[in-house]
Amino acid sequence: MPKPVTIRDVRVILTQPGKSRLCIVKVITSEPGLHGLGCATFTQRIFAVATAIERHLKPFLLGRDVDRIEEIWNMSMMHGYWRNGPVLNNAISGVDQALWDIKGKRAGMSVCDLLGGKSREAANVYVHADGRDKQEVADRARAFMEQGYRFVRVQMGGYGGSGSPLVKPKNAPPGAYYDPRDYCRRMLDMIAYLREQLGDEIELLHDIHERLAPIHAVEFAKDVEQFKLFFLEDALAPEDIHWFRTIRAQCATPLAMGELFNNPHEWQLLIQERLIDFIRMHISQMGGITPARNVAIFADMYGLRTAWHGPSDTSPVGHAANLQLDLWHPNFGVQEWYRPSALDYEIFPGLPVVEDGYLYANDQPGLGIDIDEQLAAKYPCQDIVEDWTQARLPDGSPARP
Ligand code: MG
Hints:
It is a single chain. The protein is an alpha/beta fold. 37% of the residues lie in helices and 16% in strands. The strands form three sheets. Strands 4, 5, 7, 8, 9, 10, 11, 12, 13 and 14 form a ten-stranded mixed beta sheet that branches. A three-stranded antiparallel beta sheet has the order 1-2-3. Helix 10 links the parallel strand 10 and strand 11. The termini are far apart. 46% of the residues are buried.
């Protein structure tokens, strides 16, 4: 038996080349020059994840056989006894993705090949069109269509559709205010307008971002059905998932859900009862490629498609992992894409590229991505108190962001 390749070091790389603070894990092996990268990005609690990796996971992982991904994933999850939380899941994901990357490099195969091989050459992506009014949204969507995109997520005034003047009580605290009822009216009007202006062929998506009371989400899903969205995202909060039965019973609007999920209880019911159409977990938030692979296969058996979470708070390494899953999974739906900056491409050589609305992987083994650590270090993570997540309803009460 040859001596196993083992984990020699686990390093956390924090960087912020753009709006989002990113956490990358680098697993260094006993084999000279062989390392893997993984995404552990929980941008709002980035330093907690870094500490979990450095102080808790690393001492537990040093010296372990890099080939034993399943065992390491399960032991990492159970070793802390309390489990399935976002900080720990992201920490585990960083290591898990890096181990898949290492396995691929050792085999001379992409992670997609390790999973079973390609079902497609490239992944359809959707991009975000937002605007202050419906005309601006239409203009942006049209510009994307001219660049070859076939799937566009349409929002107006950010999440919650803020824009109309609100009547607040005296001494109302500062915050990201929105009015859910006004939101419903304005968004329906916008989507009707876009369908009329842009035609039937463009696939339109919309994200409610769990901002409605459950019964109003039911109402909205019914009202928007006529405009044939590709999917309606996060109509409900994870805490309200049983309400999907009510939506399902009343309309055929395709439903997508999952970016906030971190516990298997949250997706089991939705898949088994076929209450949604697309699962879209944030891969690092659910613990990495290992659980994503399992859920993708589980969902496939029930006819659900995948649409993994992929805005700028997924790191480029996380996007590379998303794409490997997209290329493999027989029942892939669509991939959210954030249009990286030139600096992102410089810091992360191998970051996938889009052409005509399709996302392509390179032919490198593993995840096919690396990091220029010296350049990344020039963009350290800032101390931020997020504003947009301090959401409030018109009377000033706290609301889901
Ligand atoms: Mg979303």
